[in-house]
Every structure is written in structure tokens, then in C-alpha cells.
């Protein structure tokens, strides 16, 4: 007796969308009151290069360095957090654009790489290097939904243009650091 072969079609399930009416309401509210919003995070060093961070009333999150950089490898390092923040910000923007266009997304994954110059080792190593921090960031977006490829690509480009985190990485801005 021949063994039965089961062929299953891949079923794509839409990602949980954001509500269109909520997006429209938020946009109207922000247009009516265009003030800047101040975000606050408290960072507490717990030893070595490990810190615990507090944002709003959420559970604290850890940022740590790998053992090769004197950390404990318990969480992403600060630069990995920056890449994750960029990816997350792009996800938000792409989802908002999808909702605004009535596009149902079935897949949204973002792959990020950043080349970072660490020769200066936080000002304790080589100090003649002209650029510190990220020297190049590459982002690839794997996206699918009920729109054609051109619409999906336009949403990705638009989200990057209007991403606060992408702008933060791209635009010069003043950073004020002082003691309490």
C-alpha cells in the first residue's frame, strides 16, 4: 500500500494591524498640538559595563557589553540597542503607513548591520581617529502583504524618511551632557 503524501499550502496570516481610526485620531491630535514630547530614561550602572534602564512605568531593561569588552554578556550592548531602536522605529512607521494605505501586512522583518569604529575605546585608546561610532548602517526589510512590491517599497522608503530614530542617526543635533 502506498503511503499518502500530504501537501499543505503555506497559509499567510496578516499581522495584527493598528486601528485606522486610532491612527487618524492620533495624527489629528498631533497636528492640533504640535509640541515636542520629552522622553525620559534613567540609566543606573550596576557594575562592569552593565546598566539597568528605566523608561516610564515599564519593567527595567538591561544593557551590557560582551565579555571581550569587560561585560557580562547578559543583554545587548548600547550600539546593538541603537540598531534595535532603528529597526523598531521602522516597523512602527511601516505599520502606520500600511494602515493609512489600507494594506494588510503578512510579514515584516528588519535585518540591521552597523559597522562601528571602536579603536578609541571610549576615549582611552587611539584618539586620532576622525570618526567614532557607527561608520555605516545597512538595513534590509523583508516585507509582504496584500499590495504590490512597488507600494511596499514606497512604504519602507517613506517610513525611513519620517523615522525619528533614522533621523537621529543621520542628522547632526546638539547633545548636552553634564553632571547633576
Automatic annotation (TrEMBL):
InterPro entries according to UniProt: KH_dom-like_a/b, OsmC/Ohr_fam, OsmC/Ohr_hydroprdx_reductase, OsmC/Ohrsf
SUPFAM superfamilies: OsmC-like (SSF82784)
Gene3D superfamilies registered for this protein in UniProt: 3.30.300.20
UniProt feature coiled coil, ranges: none
Record-given protein name: OsmC family protein
